[in-house]
Amino acid sequence: MSDRPATDWEARFQASREPQVKVLEKLFAGIAAGARMLVVTPRIVDAAVCEIAPGAVMAAANLRQRLAGRHGADYACPVTTGIALRVVAERSYLRLQAGVEQVTPFWRALDPDSDLAGKLVCGREFLRRMRSAEAAPPRTGQ
């Protein structure tokens, strides 16, 4: 058993911050100085993930590009986007475990083979199962 307290994913999701667009003064995460970079929040990542259609998936790079475009930035920060995506995923998974039926479909935006997927409580197999379930053709009468 760990001595570390459990992360309060709901509190991290609810934290009152606004997304910010910053002009980079120097190279950061492969993004050139002078570029306008969006620093995301879990709420805007959550909203974007909810827009991904059932059965579809979106690569992290495409999610960042979509978010940046919506906020007048050249790029979305890959670091804060990854953190926000983890907050969204962990919160949604906990809500599923608590019996909430409608949660953010984070499996649509998380590659099961990514490093981030390996850190999630739900595990990589959950992401694969959810993607597979959505990709399956709907069943009709028997």
From TrEMBL:
The protein, known as: Uncharacterized protein
